[in-house]
Amino acid sequence: MATSKPQRSPAEIEDIILRKIFYVTLTESADSDLRIVYLEMTAAEILSEGKELLLSRDLMERVLIDRLSGDFSDAEPPFPYLIGCYRRAYDESKKIQSMKDKNLRSEMEIVTKQAKKLAVSYCRIHLGNPDMFGNTDKPSGGLDNRLKKRNVSPVLPLIFAEVGSGSLDMFGASSSGVQAPPGFLDEFFKDSDFDSLDPILKELYEDLRSMVINVSVLGDFQPPLRALKYLVSLPVGAKSLVSHQWWVPRGTYMNGRAMELTSILGPFFHISSLPDNKLFKSHPDVGQQCFSEASERRPADLLSSFSTIKNLINILYSGLHDVLMILLKSTDTRECVLQFLAEVINANASRGHIQVDPVSCASSGMFVNLSAVMLRLCEPFLDPHLTKRDKIDPKYAFCGHRLKLSDLTALHASSEEVSEWIGKDAMANVNGAGRENGNESRLLQSKEATSSSSNASGQNAKSATKYTFICECFFMTARVLNLGLLKALSDFKHLAQDISRGEDNLATLKAMRDQAPSPQLELDISRMEKELELYSQEKLCHEAQILRDGDFIQRALSFYRLVVVWLVGLVGGFKMPLPSTCPMEFSCMPEHFVEDAMELLIFASRIPKALDGVPLDDFMNFIIMFMASPEYIRNPYLRAKMVEVLNCWMPRSSSSSATSTLFEGHQLSLEYLVRNLLKLYVDIEFTGSHTQFYDKFNIRHNIAELLEYLWQVPSHRNAWRRIAKDEEKGVYLNFLNFLVNDSIYLLDESLNKILEIKQIEAEMSNTAEWEQRPTQERQERTRLFHSQENIVRIDMKLANEDVTMLAFTSEEITAPFLLPEMVERVANMLNYFLLQLVGPQRKSLSLKDPEKYEFRPKQLLKQIVRIYVNLARGDTENIFPGAISSDGRSYNEQLFNAGADVLRRIGEEGRIIQDFMELGTKAKAAASEALDAEAALGEIPDEFLDPIQCTLMRDPVILPSSRITVDRPIIQRHLLSDNHDPFNRAHLTSDMLIPNIELKAKIDEFVKSHQSKKRTSGEDSSNKERIQTTSSDMLID
Predict the structure, then answer these.
(1) What is d(CA 318, CA 913) in angstroms, rounded to the nearest whole number?
(2) Gene3D superfamilies from the entry (predicted)?
């Protein structure tokens, strides 16, 4: 019969378990496992105390200290050893579960639990005092060389393994080699006081920050980002982060770039696909890796690159949003997060300038990322009905203690007016109680200050008015978008312009090389090609991160919808007309709120499907309300930008079906759109800028395109007719005057430039003589040739638009054209155009390719003649023929015959030609009558002559300031373009003119007495000779 195995006592079992956990022994053993350490001195001490050489829970900590402090060859370093102890304790606890003796199992569970707790505790002690145990840790073999050099915290590999599979990429080895035992990290971070963990956490944050410095979106940023999120999700981790001295770095020379580089979160926000200054370039280079030689790559390759970048950047956005959201949810850290955001925004205020200093300002990538994250933070109050907009207090822009917004250009108020308003409000509220915020949670201060800087900010916050988080988030997001997303879109636009100019310059250089090759030209061409390649890469990087991200654009549009609805609420809501006085809350708001909304709408309108699903009615209402309201929005260029938005939304140019009903079924549009466009057309004449003369043509180009479209919509055409009738001598007459002025200037400039182009063409076609000219002269003439081509193309296009508008409006609206102060101006314009098109100089305007310059003489002649005919048909008082014939500069009776001949050859309607010829006959008769009348009057006294045009006055008026008498139609024509007295530049309007009744009576008597005299036949004959005739060689071919 076999003998039974002797039963081990609980003490022996405990000894076995602890020896397995701690890899130590108190008795010398022949065990070949080199990891097991014989604690000889410890054993001797235990024996001297009269105890058995068995490990127990009472000896556990003593044994562990001796193991860590001793100098044992081949022994593991402290941190891996302690991790191993925890893992083995965990394994033993699993084995214990199979014990049948419940009491013994319970006792052993206590032992393993205490062993795990001890291992965790000494991990903290070791990491807080790395030199305490002598045998310092060496980085794990799985770490790459970059991390070895930095000697990162040994906890970091465990965190990477905990938060996901990214550890494989980060360390170049399987995560199983560095994985934390189950439950270790939870115990390590949760069951301890803050002071012991704080230095460990701060070191971890510094390690994570170092890992992502100068890393692009193609770099391995995901493991550090996941680790960051893991750490801030721990209450102790969040508290440690916001108390770090690098949370908001301070210093005399601290600026936006320094904050991006030195703060803990800055390098994470720097991760991007957008290019940065070469001093701060990220790797891998996104442009080189994804978009090099893009013009030669397959579209599928580019789409793949776009998709990769979009996916990676959205992973970054989500991670950063989660980090900030975790911190904002806690009242202990929320204030610190808002302070960090405000410091970053304020330190980068100069990013709003046209030229940005890359050394003092944070990167575009950081602010685009921050824009995306802030928009995600805003999502809870961007619901379709914007129900929480009442939580946004306009006073925050000036009284908030965080953001510096009061120095920004306001929508209408001057800086002095803003300061005065703030001062009055502060006095009125000096004894006021805090404002009500409903059920919305207020921002709370940190429960304890963690640095001198946070102490200071905390004191300021306590003395300031409390604002809701929604309010703070709204204003911060608006400012971040201005410095981030909108600045990046501006950079993208300038890149596209640089590329366009570069391609034009390259084409010019190649043309010059064909004419006169030289080594210098080859160098210039090579340099330009390299520049264009870099520009192309940068442009595609912007496109990948911003324009291709539809969700990003739509979030931004939703935010700006809130902006415009909130702004309209400050003036009483969506209703017209606007109050006569602009509320100061609206007047003092930063101008960029509206400018950024308009810029984003313009960009989004040019991106396919970007506007799909976006409610645009609120934007449309806002634009109609304010684009012709200088009392609310002072900047005329900002109001002109609203027209640019509408121009993008026209059904024929919009890429979205969402815009189709905005013009034809929108109530405010039908009632006010045409009126406000005409008013803005007039207002834009005087912008106050030194470039106003040239700026107005581009702005009016957008207005003209929009008006041409609206004329085709019956309801808008009816509104147009009503305005022309109601405002015949008001805004419509001013509009018509500027339209005529622009037409004359643009066509005159274009025709003169055509003559210059033809001259250079003639020079270049004479090859022998051209080749003999110096190289520099040929290059300069070639540049001038291309420059003049561009000018002609633009001016002629604008002139065509203006003439087209005159043609279609005069078909149904003629009265304003025929007013005394307007009719001669219109007639002079038409005569001038007719002379240029069918007169003796016509052959000099022939071009090889007129369409290239938008020069369409046949179409232009048809439109000019239709304007003549339209006005003649509406001329019930027969004043138009006299206005035509009184033009001493361009009128010639035979031009009407020449024009009719051309019209027949180019297929104009017979009825139009007949009416045109009849008008010519009437003009000829009017000219004869005018000469008879002039002869009958004889010598006219000087006091009866208008001092401006030296013609007989019919309705003399006195100018109030200079006291000079002029003819009313002449001064009124002057006032259409200039509201100043022409003699002393004093302010002058039509209603200020004083009728000179006495002089008018004298003139009437003078005319009446001379008309009664009999005209002699000799005078009649001489008058006929004075009418200019046209020889046959003047007729157009």
Answers:
(1) 70
(2) Zinc/RING finger domain, C3HC4 (zinc finger)
